[in-house]
Amino acid sequence: MTEEELARVARWMADHVPDFAPPLRAEKFAVGQSNPTYRLTSPTGDYVLRRKPPGQLLKSAHAVDREHRVQRALRDTPVPVPRMYALCEDEAVLGVAFYVMDHVDGRNIVDPSMPNETPEMRGAIVREMGRVLAAIHAVKPEAVGLGDFGPQGNYFARQLGRWAKQYEATKTEAQPDMDRLVTWLESALPEDDGQRTLVHGDYRIDNLLFARDRADCVAVLDWELSTLGHPFADLAGVILQWQLPPGAEGRGLRGIDRAAAGLPTDEGFIAGYCAGRGIAVPGDFGFYVAFCAFRMAAILQGVKKRALDGNAANPEKGLKLGAYVPEFARLGWDARHAYG
């Protein structure tokens, strides 16, 4: 952020953030988020600014306005979110929309295997993940002004149709594993059970902040993909992530001795979440994990297609990500009957 941009932000904050006073300093967070995020420091406190990236964007992408809206709506609920101060849609300030929120002090955990934690702390943190996810899904959207935050209808039928069409439009070579996975998902689609809740859309341990010395979650971040939908999409997303290899790229738990590490099994986490919501463990949970794997594969196929067409910001990275399409297709196929 340039000095001129920072000065414009400071003038805007003086009009929209209570008790704010300049001067203002900005430091960009290193974590790779799709929406550039800055820590702002001033004599009156620390804040966080989250903005759309510059350049030509897809109409529905980088929806900082939706992020601001949902976090503001959750302020007085059991879901921990930062305090929202204001949304700026005046492009004269930064050239793009942005919002300013309170800075929450906490630790960000990137690796779900948590190698530097004790088994007791690992187990407590993962239980807290399940508790907070259940709290998100317990929010009544209409009660907090989010009744129109997503479309009506069968969430999985709609999402399956959308991403199957998107996948076909971006297919670059034959993928038999994807084809058979799509066919199976279409045949195994559960009937709509009436569950329609707020869903985060990207619920992972690295999108949460935890207290410095405790397992308490102090903030849920990165609500860009949030909508109204089926809560099992969030739950299955956690389980799918854990099937990936550990380390900086996979950020999974594949091959980890979970009992020795103090971490729950997939089934244990699912059962704990369902107990927190007071619902029965679904007997067909494999469908939801398979669906999440398919959706990720379809997303990565689109990334690969853009890289091959020369429309990606980083073609090399796009091709690297696209190479994971067959792996996610296999993960989805293997998940079909793995649960329940």
From TrEMBL:
What InterPro entries has UniProt attached to this entry? ACAD10-like, ACAD10_11_N, Aminoglycoside_PTrfase, Kinase-like_dom_sf
Keywords in UniProt for this one?
Transferase
* Gene Ontology molecular function: any one: transferase activity
Which organism is this entry from?
Sagittula stellata (strain ATCC 700073 / DSM 11524 / E-37)
Keyword set includes Secreted: no
Where does the record place a coiled coil?
none
Pfam families (alphabetical): APH (PF01636)
Q: Which domain of life does this protein belong to?
A: Bacteria
Query: What is the recorded name of this protein?
Result: Phosphotransferase family protein
Q: Which residues form the Aminoglycoside phosphotransferase domain?
A: 27-249
